[in-house]
Design a protein that fits this description.
The complex is a heterodimer of chains A (213) and B (332). Chain A has nine helices and no strands. Chain A has 213 residues and is mainly alpha-helical. Chain A is globular. The two termini of chain A are 13 Å apart. In chain B, 58% of the residues are buried. Chain B has 332 residues and is of the alpha/beta class. Chain B starts with 10 loop residues before the first helix and ends with a strand. Helix content of chain B is 31%, strand content 24%. Chain B folds into two domains: 176 residues, Dihydroxyacetone kinase, domain 1 (Rossmann fold, 3-Layer(aba) Sandwich), CATH 3.40.50; 134 residues, 2-Layer Sandwich (Hypothetical Protein Tm841, Chain: A,domain 3). In chain B, a hairpin with a 5-residue loop joins strand 1 and strand 2. The chains are: A mainly alpha (213), B alpha/beta (332).
Chain lengths: 213, 332
């Protein structure tokens, strides 16, 4: 398999695994969301990922195009802020990935584009208790890996930064999103968006291990 | 407890189908989109008022579509903002040469998705403006009014904007009047029990017996303060204290009043509460104008209510009085 076929296989596998893992944690994500929000984060993510999987099922395009369409389908099916943001993350990353090489340097650039789009749209900064608190440390850690490091190894090395970032949201007070209206009440609970992002990144690790390990 | 559903995932779709089947005399389905539009939309030469938000708040939002009110409502899943794609499709279906006004409660998900749709419409040459409803005094302090969320005050802002649009006002003018109505509208609420999403077995939050939550949100977000349960007359004072302390700077003495039920509070209880609200308003030297005691913006089966005041003037009163017809509100 050439690089672009591997990329296509990884994206497809990742979408399927992401749906599996988020479905398995749907209740947990709902509970985290209910602490200071409306408790639908798990259901919203499942709905979005189902639509994303359905959208790419019959496509025969490259990995970038798949991500763009998966992002659009995710946003439309999920709605809400998280739907718009995660969809934009996928689509922005897909536009960079396009049909270029599938390596650590490209994946980093793709995720950097996704991160900056999420921050621009959501107007969230690190420390605001959003998915940015898991995504940004991950992207920074990925960027710090040697560019010639195989993607799977680089991804694995960067994952703990995302986990630490998500865990740290427990000590934060929400500043963006609906939970921000509750200020201190969000303290003590991890941000559901940051938590689900870690699951998505872990699903990608598995997909990479299966398809290029 | 939300009891009537089939697959919870289909809740929005099935409620839209049922709503259109029941109220086809006011609305039809927007083809290929999660929303409903007035039978006479698009209305040439008239600004299209597009409202919307998550489901779970009926009569907001689809109940306010019809002549003299909104041209269309975009309907998200329960408690989730509609996607930008759906907002865009609904806008395209009802946009006229006079432009479009988006009007919705100020929540980050709605802002994000409506803003993305607005941008896309602007790029296509459709003049779209936005007025976000920010009436809930509990959600941000004075001086940060723009940060507040929108609750039952939605109704007055939609009614006034819809009437201005129906009258044939320009987009600039409809936008100005909607903004003015919002700037003069304040709400504050109290919750006695949480709401349960379709398919879930437990409510989003619970209120301890003998206690109540002040400053509830319409999504069942916990309140900002908890208090012991009090007699209705004290709750009336509590609600009015919060609103009167926050009266807009140019407030006159005539106020439109809405005592809004959240879904599981009885009308007769609300009349008991309204008696004391009314008396206190008069004692404060205010004239309650055509008060409404009803469910206008709900939160599934949440127990509680909110009080909204809209300080009227000679410009807003005729718009509030203008005729309209929709599934949930008819004025003639």
């Amino acid at each position: 398999m050439g690089s672009s076929e591997i990329a296509v296989a990884v994206v497809r596998r990742w979408l399927a695994l992401a749906l599996e893992v988020i479905t398995a944690h749907e209740e947990e994500l709902g509970r985290l969301d209910a602490a200071a929000g409306d408790g639908d984060h798990g259901a919203t993510m499942v709905r979005g990922l189902r639509a994303a999987n359905a959208a790419v099922e019959k496509m025969s395009d490259g990995a970038g195009r798949l991500l763009i369409e998966a992002g659009a389908a995710f946003s439309d099916a999920s709605g809400g802020a998280s739907g718009a943001l995660i969809g934009a993350l996928l689509s922005s990353a897909g536009r960079v990935l396009d049909d270029g090489p599938f390596d650590t340097a490209t994946a980093t650039k793709a995720l950097q584009a996704g991160l900056s789009m999420v921050m621009r749209l959501g107007k969230a900064q690190p420390g605001d208790k959003t998915l940015v608190d898991a995504l940004k440390p991950f992207v920074d850690a990925l960027a710090a890996q040697p560019a010639d490091q195989p993607l799977l190894a680089a991804w694995r090395a960067a994952l703990p930064a995302a986990q630490a970032g998500a865990a740290a949201t427990r000590e934060m007070v929400a500043k963006r999103g609906r939970s921000a209206k509750l200020g201190e009440r969000s303290l003590g609970h991890a941000d559901p968006g940051a938590t689900s992002l870690v699951y998505l990144l872990q699903a990608m690790e598995t997909a990479l291990a299966e398809e290029c390990g | 407890m939300t009891k009537l559903y089939n697959d919870p995932a289909d809740f929005r779709e099935e409620l839209i189908e049922g709503f259109v089947a029941a109220y086809g005399r006011f609305v039809r389905r927007v083809p290929g989109a999660s929303g409903v539009m007035a039978l006479d939309a698009p209305r040439p030469g008239k600004v299209a008022l597009v409202i919307g938000g998550g489901s779970g708040h009926y009569p907001a939002f689809c109940g306010y579509v019809g002549p003299g009110l909104a041209a269309a409502a975009v309907m998200g899943n329960v408690f989730a903002a509609p996607s930008a794609e759906q907002v865009y499709r609904v806008t395209k279906a009802v946009a006229s040469d006079a432009g479009v006004l988006y009007c919705y409660g100020n929540y980050s998900g709605d802002v994000l998705n409506f803003d993305m749709a607005e941008l896309r419409c602007q790029e296509e040459g459709i003049d779209v403006r936005t007025v976000r409803v920010t009436d809930d005094v509990a959600s941000a302090p004075r001086g940060q009014e723009d940060e507040r969320r929108g609750i039952a005050g939605d109704f007055f802002v939609f009614k006034i904007a819809g009437a201005a649009a129906a009258r044939g006002d320009s987009l600039d003018e409809v936008e100005r009047l909607a903004r003015k109505a919002n700037a003069r509208t304040r709400s504050f609420g109290v919750a006695f029990g949480g709401c349960t999403l379709p398919g879930q077995s437990a409510p989003l939050f619970t209120v301890e017996p003998g206690r109540m939550e002040l400053g509830l949100g319409v999504h069942g977000e916990p309140g900002v303060q908890s208090s012991h349960m009090r007699p209705a007359r004290e709750i009336a004072d509590l609600l009015l204290d919060a609103l009167l302390a926050d009266a807009p700077p140019d407030a006159g003495s005539t106020v439109a009043v809405l005592l809004n039920g959240l879904g599981a509070t009885q009308y007769e209880e609300m009349f008991v509460l309204y008696k004391d609200v009314h008396r206190r308003l008069l004692a404060e030297g205010l004239s309650p104008y055509k008060p409404i005691v009803n469910e206008m913006v709900t939160s599934l089966d949440m127990a509680g209510c909110s009080l909204t005041l809209c300080w009227l003037d000679e410009e807003l009163t005729p718009l509030l009085d203008a005729p309209c017809a929709s599934a949930a509100y008819i004025n003639c």
